[in-house]
Write a structure and sequence with these properties.
The protein is mostly helical and about 140 residues long. The chain has six helices and no strands. Helix 1 packs across helix 5 and helix 5 crosses helix 6. It is globular. It comes from Halocynthiibacter styelae. Keywords: Membrane, Transmembrane, Transmembrane helix. This is YeeE/YedE family protein.
């Protein structure tokens, strides 16, 4: 029964990505092309997501504990450091080059689009490389 809400959340997310057009990397890349064929629709999608998430967080954190766990799992480290800034920059560069955000690319896998499959392979390679580098650097 615990998997049903997770499945429904993923289904709603995937439907939202598809309906908004964010499954199309060209649409995402046009958002970053402010000097050319700029498409502001991504800003509206992100704004809508922030609004819904903000309301959701307000409602959820009024509870003493989550519905399906004993405690809320929130990050304790709120420090902005080189690692966070570097990771954010790499994320943004990758998103701008490919037009795929990792979370939004997952629903697109079902389309069989070769570009998203290549992106996911590269993403996993980057994750493994970063973990190996972290271990090496201590």
């Amino acid at each position: 029964m615990k998997l049903l809400p997770i499945f429904l959340t993923g289904l709603i997310f995937g439907a939202g990505i598809s309906i908004s057009g964010m499954a199309n990397p060209a649409k995402v890349m046009n958002f970053f092309d402010v000097a050319g064929a700029w498409d502001p629709s991504l800003a509206f999608v992100m704004g809508g997501a922030l609004l819904v998430a903000g309301i959701g967080y307000r409602l959820v954190f009024r509870r003493a504990a989550p519905v399906m766990d004993n405690v809320f799992h929130v990050p304790q480290n709120r420090q902005i450091n080189k690692r966070l800034l570097g990771g954010s920059a790499i994320f943004g560069i990758g998103w701008g080059i490919t037009g795929f955000c990792p979370g939004a690319a997952i629903p697109v896998i079902g389309t069989g689009n070769a570009d998203v499959l290549l992106f996911m392979i590269a993403l996993m390679g980057g994750i493994f490389a970063a973990k190996a580098l972290q271990k090496r650097m201590g």
